[in-house]
Specification:
eight-stranded parallel barrel, 261 residues, TIM Barrel
Length: 261
Amino acid sequence: MFIAAYAGARPLGRPLPALAAAPGGGAAGDGDASLPLHLIYSFARDAAHDGVFTFYDPAQLERAASQQHPTGQRGMLSLAGAGFAWGPAVPLQQWVENAAASLEDLMTRYSLVGLDVNYEEGLDAGGFPEALAALVAQLKAWRPSLLVTVVPFDCVWPHYRQLLQLAGSNIDYVNWQVYAELESPHANADQIVAAYERLARELGGSYGRLTLGVNTEPEQLRGPQLAACLDAFRRLKARGIGGAFTWALDNSAVNGCCALM
């Protein structure tokens, strides 16, 4: 079961909450190493669109990595995010080589266990599925245990579906932003389950690579609310869903620990 929370959300500068208070952090009393909380640090970007990735606030990433509970929490790195479009300024092969080198360095330096692909804009420019599939293959060859997730929603699904076809088993989980598809806060568990039934059919009938997305932005009220998500999650667990994630830990820290754990 994959449980994750996006953390340090967006380059507009929200600080991370105290990681010791998050699930798996020890102080929360639920540091079961068999079910760690994956902290997906957001975001790393290649500002020159050349594949050379840096985290938007290296000092914050360094502090976060040093605060992680040694067994109950694991760090991942999320690429791009809203507001940063796909569009390499160098040939795709050079972009892949640069990206692999810079990401290997970041993941080694901060002891990160995985990579999250979160491009949402500019995907019609072409080259995205091919380049990311090649990048993931190179990173998996470098570290076979590397965990790789993608975080699509309905508007960008055709591009991510092609990436999944090209990358195959190199993509471990699909963090579906169901709150971007079902934007009403009145969306119910039946609608959530129906969305995942459709996705499972597109992925060959298996729920195992899918994770349930929960939006905890207090000001947005975007997407199904927590009660509906928990109801849907219980039903989807019976079908073998791979896990759940929340956007974002910064918000969830205000509302208490992640109930999905």
